Amino acid sequence: MAESNLDLFIRVAEKASASVLQDCDTVFAATYISEHLTGTLLLPHSPSLQRLGIQDTLAQAGVNLVTGDVRQQAAAAGGGLTGANFGIADTGTIVLESTDEATRLASTLPEQHFVLLDPGKILVDGIAAVAPLRALHQRDARNFIAYITGPSRTADIERVLTIGVHGPKQLHILLLPGISDDPLEN
Question: Residue 155 pLDDT more than 70?
Fold first, then answer.
């Protein structure tokens, strides 16, 4: 029997050192984030996360949020929370339209990146991602698209693999059904 997109995504993302949690809801996600976060959490604007009401749920869980001027507090933040446009199963990759500076900062600067992804937006491979990527570029020809596979890693320092030099040391992917089925929305 063929492996489902979801099962393949989880297996490959975990192999790339991401933590993946299934069947989450907003309360579980907020609790998980509060238990794993050290410091403040950058929370850039995201239509799907706003619709979830995650800001209020995180505040109720005791998370210290940075929502306004993210740039001023990004360097000291312990984590960032973003949505995702979609995932790619065969590489365990999160695809995130990150033209907004606050989204880029939240996904690249803190030591931990938390991602809320609707499992219905996991595509089988890069070929299946062509149509939504084309639509993103047609909507705005000058945008940033981030492909995130596991925590940041580099081997350009004496050819030794190092985690977290140029980005987050930890990637936490929380799968929340029903967030959004629109791959143009993160």
Answer: no
